[in-house]
Amino acid sequence: MAATRLLPKPLHSFLPPIPTSQFSTPLFHSPQRTRPLHHRSRSLFSTNAKKKNPWLDPFDDGEDPDMEYGTLFADGKQDEDPVPPENPDNPYGFLKFPSGFNVELAGLQSKIRGDVRRCCCVVSGGVYENLLFFPVVQLIRDRYPGVQVDVLTSPRGKQTYEINKNVRWATAYDPDDELIEPMEYTDMIGVLKNRYYDMILSTKLAGLGHAAFLFMSTARDRASYVYPNVNAAGAGLLLSETFTAPSLNLSEGGYNMYDEMTEWLGRPKRNVPRQPVTPLKVSISKKLREYVEAKYAKAGVEKGKYVVIHGIESDSIASMRSKGDTDSLLPVQVWAEIAKEIRGLKPVFVIPHEKEREDLEEAVGEDSSILFITTPGQLAALIDDSAGVIATNTAAVQLANARGKRCIALFSSEIKGRLFVPDPEAKNCVIISSKTGKLIDVDTEAIKDAVRSFESFDNSYVLV
User: Which domains does the chain have, with CATH numbers?
Assistant: First the structure.
């Protein structure tokens, strides 16, 4: 008897019968025919909006103009998360579980609005650059109520957030370090992934390498500055939003160096008007005030009866100058001439390193008041208790403007002065610039005339 031949069964024997009446069009049809008419015409009549990257989602045609959002998809800003009641028996108030420990549920309207519950900011630079980032942090807090803002920056930049109450965690990780160890790199990626960020912002000019670092954080929105040249190739594929830097040194933009980022963060969306950028503000804790008060009292000065002098020439990294202005320090001899013109108030010289003390005592005398201060928090507390500030383009100028103190700012050129201190009259700041483009050639006579104004200056109306 011949063996029976095994034949393959037809496909319809494995699948249930599919009624053809449910399909108004054939199953296999070209996408061009099945696509509605308004989808095809949208690309022809597009506005001047920024084009979306087709590599991120090739099937995303943008927002549907026929979609109407009702009560299900709530407009406006996000709602703050409810706070658990405080437990009087617990010294910490209530127990906060780590992110991802319990199942977290979010409403559909939260997804539609693009709510941001946790935001991470990768800030490039030192004290000065992080200090100018404070208005951006405030903008994020105002735009997304209840958001938790964390910062990733250099060890020097981390010290700045001692005077910022809007930042939850500040982590020391220098994004500008080109020789980062692989173990530290992978560990930081794991830290960012475990915090479950909704949005990550970066002020470091990104190429493909830094964009990959932000992409591996698994944040939903990834926005960063990119190089203004070919080094930015490939970065846009891994980022949700890019800002092309005006130059290779972002700090050259001065006070408004983050204009492109604030323009995107404060954009109007879903019945929310444009969010304005607030001025720079700093907060000083009571513990920090007491520590600095004891420090300057030991130096022999009283509260409100001294002038802070900052910007002494030094090679220390604690000089707190901007990366956008390399010529922003004056030698000791120039400061000694300026200090002689101060009447009625005592000059307090701030040095960034103890090795400068001996040269300074030689120039101004051993009985002068010299304070060794390296952190921006201590400098802010010292300025807040003073009658005014005389400084070059260092963090002392911005801290004096933030606390409403009278300031005499010395710049190497008039252009630098307008960039770093816009609208100086409203900030009670006097700008004196050099006509040669070098800070050492600044007009000392103009400085002496401005210093004499401290004698008649009334501190009773200074904002604190």
Answer: 109-265 (3.40.50.2000), 286-461 (3.40.50.2000)
> 3-state class of 304 per DSSP?
coil
Instruction: State how far the Cα of 409 lies from the Cα of 391, in Å rounded to an integer.
Output: 5
Which tens digit of pLDDT belongs to each residue from 143-162?
A: 999 899 999 999 999 999 99
DSSP H stretches of helix in 181-305: 182-194, 208-215, 259-265, 286-298
Beta bridge partners of 241: 223
Angstrom CA distances, 258 to 218, 263, 419, stand at 24, 9, 13
361: left (phi over 0), alpha (psi -120 to 50) or beta: alpha
What values do phi and psi take at 211, rounded to 5? -65, -35
C-alpha span between 279 and 287 (Å, rounded): 25
Nearest 5°: CA angle at 163, between 83 and 186? 75
Identity of the residue numbered 8: P
Residue-wise pLDDT tens for the chain (464 aa)?
A: 455 455 555 545 444 554 544 444 444 444 444 444 444 444 444 445 556 666 666 777 777 676 655 555 667 888 887 666 666 676 665 555 555 444 456 667 777 788 899 999 999 999 999 999 999 999 999 999 989 999 999 999 999 999 999 999 999 999 999 888 999 999 999 999 999 899 999 999 999 999 999 999 999 999 999 999 999 999 999 999 999 999 999 999 999 999 999 999 999 987 888 999 999 999 999 999 999 999 999 998 999 899 999 999 999 999 999 999 999 999 999 999 998 888 888 999 999 999 999 999 998 888 889 999 999 999 999 999 999 999 999 999 999 999 999 999 999 999 999 999 999 988 889 999 999 989 999 988 888 888 877 765 544 433 33
- DSSP secondary structure string for all residues of 340-402: TT--SSEEEEEESSGGGHHHHHHHH-TTSEEEE--SHHHHHHHHHTSSEEEEESBHHHHHHHH
Question: Does the CA dihedral 364-399-436-444 come out positive or negative?
Answer: negative
Q: Which residue has the tokens 């981390």?
A: 158
Sign of the CA dihedral running 362, 367, 372, 376: negative
pTM: 0.79
DSSP 8-state code for residue 227: -
Q: Are 417 and 431 in contact (CB under 8 A)?
A: yes
Instruction: Please check whether residue 196 is in contact with residue 99, taking contact to mean a CB–CB distance below 8 angstroms.
Output: yes
Amino acid 203 reads T
41 CB-near residues (< 8 Å, 6+ apart): none
